[in-house]
Amino acid sequence: EIMIDIFVLEWLSHGTMDVKFINIVNGGDILVTNAEVKSRESQNSATRFIMDVCCENQKGAKVLVGYATGILGKGIFSPIQQTVLQKDLQSMPTLQAYEFTLTPELNQQYLYAEEDFRPCFVEETDDGPPIGHPSLLFNMSNGTRSPSFSMGAGEAAFHARDETFFLNPARVGKKLKVIYNWRGTLEKRGRPYRLTNVSIVDADGREIIKR
Q1: Strand partners, 40
Q2: pLDDT digit string (tens) for 72-126?
Q3: What's the sign of the alpha-carbon dihedral 188, 191, 195, 200?
Q4: DSSP-H helix ranges across the chain
Q5: Which terminal Cβ of the chain has fewer Cβ within 10 Å, N or C?
C-alpha cells in the first residue's frame, strides 16, 4: 500500500519488491510500514527509485525487511533481480495450475480486509473495469492454492521470502490463471527450503505478476 501511495497505480505495471518475512504477525498487532530512498537512477525524464522497506509491529520489532523499486516518469529500465537460490537445488514436481475469476465480490472482500477503498479498486474508468487489489493477487497465487499442493504428515511451512515483479494491473471480471514452476529444494542452516516460480496471466494472455 505504501508503494502505491508513493508511485500511484503505475507501480502495478513496473514496480518490484524483494522482501523477507522475519517474524510472525499475530492477530491484533499494530503494523507500521516504512520506505526510505536508498538510491536513484535517471533516464531522460524518468527516475527509478530503489527503496529500503520494512514493516514493524507495535513493539518496534521488524516483521518484514527488504527493498522495492518504483519509477516516476516514462522510462524503460533493466530489471533489478536477486535470485534467492542459485545452486544446490534438488528437482521437484511442478504444481498444478490454479484458475479463478476475479469477481467484484471477491475483490470487495479484500478491500474490506485492507480498509482500502481507492476509486481505482471500485469504479470503472476509461481504461476498463476496476483493478484487482494487489493483496488479493498475492493470496490467490500462493502455492497452497494449487489443487495438487500437499504436505507430509506433521509438516508445517512458513513463507520466508518473496521476490515480485508487477507487470500489468488485473481487471475485475477477468479469469486469471496461476502457473507454478517448482525450481527445487535445498537445505540452508539446517532448514529445508522450496523455491517456486509463479506467474499470473489473464484470459487474454496478459501477464500480471511474476513471483
Answers
A1: 49
A2: 988 777 766 655 445 544 555 678 999 999 999 999 999 999 899 999 999 998 8
A3: negative
A4: 2-7, 11-14, 104-114, 134-140
A5: N
